Amino acid sequence: MTAMSSKMRYSFAEAMRRLLFIADPSVVHSVNCHKSQNDKRVVINVSGIKFETWRTNLDQHPTTLLGSCEIDYFFDERNNEYFFDRDPHLFRYILNYYSTGELHFPKYECHVAFENELKFYRIVPDMIQDCCFEEYQDYKDAEKETLYPERHSHNAKEKDTDTEKPQRTFRENLWQMFEDPEKSGMPQVAPAFNYIIGFFVMISILANIIETVPVQETDGSKISSTPMGDKYNLIFTCLDTACVAIFTVEYVLRVYAAPSRARFVSSGMSIIDLIAILPFYIGLCLADTGNVNAIFVTLRVFRVFRVLKFSRDSTGLRLLGYTIRNCMKELGFLVFSMLIAVIIFSTFMFYIEKGVENTKYTSIPATFWYTIVTMTTLGYGDMVPKTWLGKTLTGICSLSGVLLITLPVTVIVTNFNHVIQKAEREKKLETMDKHIFNKGKLYNAPLLPTAPHV
Question: Which end of the chain has the smaller Cβ count within 10 Å, N or C?
Answer without folding.
Answer: C
